[in-house]
Amino acid sequence: MSVGPTAGETPPAAGGWREGDPNGRRQWFRGELPGLPVRIAYETWGALDPQRSNAVLVLHALTGDSHVVGEAGPGHPTPGWWDGLIGPGRPVDTRRWFVVAPNVLGGCQGTTGPWAAAPDGRPWGARFPRVSVRDQVAAEALLADALGIDAWAAVLGGSMGGMRALEWAVSLPDRVKSLLVLAAPAASTAEHIALASAQLHAIRLDPVRGMGVARRIAHLSYRSAPELEARFGRDRQADGRFAVESYLDHHADKLVRRFDPESYAVLTEAMNGHDVGAGRGGVRAALGRVTARSVVAGIDSDRLYPLAQQAEIAEGLGVDLRVVSSPFGHDGFLIEVEQVGALVAELLAGDPGGDPGSGAAGLQGSRRA
């Protein structure tokens, strides 16, 4: 039985990439936001064309990283989180597209975050400045500038990555030609913030053990009630514990071995602050700034970010809401690769650089007239 740390046990040290660890496939960019020097770890696949017009930005969720595709190995504790979506002959075909995936600002897989050295030489830790989704996009824009990418052919993101994808299209509309927002809201709600608050309190009481508790809380919102009932019901293990408890322990234990609790807190607070309409006249007015060809999709069993929240974005963008059918709740955006891949392929087929016959007319998720 795999369980998380219990009373009397020594919990594992906080995880994440650290200086001296293998780089793996990471590349590095250094820049500066106001008052904050930043280093961004990122990975790429494919080749940038001479016009620099075929670049696709892929944005990860809360505990993801730049390793979208590939095996686990030195420098990469887990395999690619969207394997099956990117590569030769796949929906994002790397024979045609140049794919860029950065680790988010505040993360713990190579990009500047609480684990990194502050100007005084000590790790930032809890002193790391509060960052917003808009700050994270600003850091990614610096990376795009360094790569010579004036506009992305597409920006793709799910969950927290979907928040950043939407923010890209709202704040920098001229730099986003097409957009996929998947299983994400236009603004975090009171319920989202309340759920996150319990996780943040656990981490502040005991960072490593608390992150295990936070993961247990979060994971319940990532899966659906019918799936948990079908998989576990009231089954017990030989020691008398409920099987679903062991399942949550397993996911908590995995996370504390690969992720940094301070990063978890920083990113959770950034998600709590997400609101594309703040300072822009509200959500509807902000969405009116988007010029990208857009697909907005949600998961029919998602109880973290229900379909009504994607419907708000779709309506504001003047597109049809696309629905991914899945028993897996919010995690369906990672699991249902075939359905998500079909949406991505459809979006990219409508790119101006694509086949002349494909066009936007066949894209049901494109902006309605």
UniProtKB/TrEMBL annotation:
Residues 1-29 are annotated as: Disordered. Keywords: Acyltransferase, Amino-acid biosynthesis, Cytoplasm, Methionine biosynthesis, Transferase. Pathway: Amino-acid biosynthesis; L-methionine biosynthesis via de novo pathway; O-acetyl-L-homoserine from L-homoserine: step 1/1. PANTHER family: HOMOSERINE O-ACETYLTRANSFERASE. Belongs to the AB hydrolase superfamily. MetX family. The gene is metXA. Residues 54-333 form the AB hydrolase-1 domain. It holds the Pfam family Abhydrolase_1. Substrate binds at R215, D331. Homodimer. It comes from the Bacteria. Transfers an acetyl group from acetyl-CoA to L-homoserine, forming acetyl-L-homoserine. Its EC number is 2.3.1.31. The active site is at S159 (nucleophile), D302, H330. It catalyses: L-homoserine + acetyl-CoA = O-acetyl-L-homoserine + CoA. It is found in: Cytoplasm. One of its GO terms (molecular function) is homoserine O-acetyltransferase activity. This is Homoserine O-acetyltransferase. Its main location: cytoplasm. SUPFAM superfamilies: alpha/beta-Hydrolases (SSF53474). InterPro entries: AB_hydrolase_1 (IPR000073), AB_hydrolase_fold (IPR029058), HAT_MetX-like (IPR008220).
